């Protein structure tokens, strides 16, 4: 394995099975920014407009080896979201690479993105009336 990869064992808490895999080092800020930009592009595609406020990303793709409770919490939140959105059709022209689900209720937009058949990311767009101005929150546009 390369200098940025290390062998690890992962535990599937739902099936209680262990598997061998590799952990790689990523630039977390760039990775999260990429997921946010994907979510913003999908929002624009679905609505025809830009979302001028911060977007919340729940990241289950990149794991923090120093914060296992956060990793578990993010995975549980994604699992709950998948159950809630189970009845929605997946969208995307190349589902082996990327597909997503889009839902909007009471002004809240949820986009569940799936990369390569199982690496999921969740983006939530709060109602504009409750979203902070990006300059006030330090968020990105």
Describe what this molecule looks like in 3D:
Helices cover 29% and strands 33% of the residues. It has 141 residues and is α+β, with helices and mostly antiparallel strands.
SSE layout and pairings?
Blueprint: E1 5-12, E2 17-24, H1 28-47, E3 56-59, H2 68-84, E4 91-94, E5 98-105, E6 108-115, E7 119-125, H3 134-137
Antiparallel strand pairs: 1-2, 3-7, 4-5, 5-6, 6-7
Helix tally equals 3
Low-confidence stretches: 134-141
Q: Average pLDDT, to the nearest integer?
A: 85
Tell me, briefly, the overall form: globular
Rg measurement, Å: 16 Å
Indicate the structural class.
Answer: alpha+beta
Strand content: 25-35%
**Could you state the order of secondary-structure elements as H and E?**
EEHEHEEEEH
Q: Percent range for helical residues?
A: 25-40%
Q: Ends: how far apart? A: 37 Å
Order of strands across the main sheet: 3-7-6-5-4
Largest sheet: 5 strands, antiparallel
- Counting DSSP E segments of at least 2 residues, the number of strands comes to 7
